[in-house]
């Protein structure tokens, strides 16, 4: 059943600064989408918001090999990027032992994060998917990876995201065996951008809608860590 849509609200205050990291602070590996690297404005902005909201000891971003050297090349099949992603995760776990591990990704990065989460080599506390690309190029529903997941999974989706119709995601979520949640950004597209006319007609505000999403992610992560 689809999660409740949330409208604008007051943003939360920043968490208090710590002098030493707490072992309950998560470490996050955040993967980019197919079309832009980790240095894109979208990724940098969301990395900053998530670092504060999750009180993360570190939010780690990286680039897949096909974007290395500043070159923009078409991405290979997602399955071919899993090993590189998993190596990054293992390095992060080695650097921050004992901290809860959260895998997060935008679009393609979220799909690969789910593939990595199914690995037996790592212990993942939760996966957060920002704009999961449920529909393939030819329109087929790509739910095989999601149906294999065993750890808590959250979806943050724009209501106008053509790559993930909410009714199709709802059907998939019903068939998933892991705990899963959905947060919908009213009027948001695949990158959560809300059109000006939609904002004016509904009163939805881009900044507040994103902050509500980040707060929902933080609550989901906190609950998932508490259950592990």
TrEMBL record:
A Pfam family: Abhydrolase_11
Superkingdom to which the source organism belongs: Eukaryota
Family matches, as InterPro entries: KANL3/Tex30_Abhydrolase, NSL3/Tex30
KANL3/Tex30 alpha/beta hydrolase-like domain residues: 26-221
Region (Disordered): 1-24
Compositional bias ranges of the Polar residues kind: 10-24
Protein name as annotated: KANL3/Tex30 alpha/beta hydrolase-like domain-containing protein
């Amino acid at each position: 059943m689809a999660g409740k849509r949330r409208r604008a609200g007051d943003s939360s205050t920043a968490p208090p600064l710590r002098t030493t990291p707490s072992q309950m602070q998560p470490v996050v590996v955040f993967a980019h989408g197919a079309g832009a690297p980790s240095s894109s404005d979208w990724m940098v902005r969301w990395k900053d918001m998530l670092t504060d909201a999750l009180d993360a000891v570190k939010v780690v971003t990286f680039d897949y090999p096909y974007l290395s050297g500043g070159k923009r090349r078409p991405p290979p099949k997602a399955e071919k990027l899993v090993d590189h992603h998993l190596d990054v995760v293992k390095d992060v776990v080695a650097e921050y032992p004992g901290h809860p591990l959260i895998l997060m990704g935008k679009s393609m990065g979220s799909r690969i994060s789910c593939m990595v989460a199914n690995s037996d080599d790592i212990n993942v506390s939760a996966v957060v998917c920002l704009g999961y690309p449920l529909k393939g190029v030819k329109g087929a529903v790509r739910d095989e990876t999601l149906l294999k997941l065993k750890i808590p999974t959250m979806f943050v989706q724009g209501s106008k995201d053509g790559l993930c119709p909410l009714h199709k995601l709802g059907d998939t979520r019903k068939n998933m065996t892991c705990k899963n949640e959905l947060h919908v950004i009213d009027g948001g597209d695949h990158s959560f951008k809300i059109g000006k006319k939609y904002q004016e007609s509904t009163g939805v505000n881009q900044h507040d809608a994103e902050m509500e999403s980040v707060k929902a992610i933080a609550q989901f992560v906190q609950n998932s860590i508490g259950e592990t």
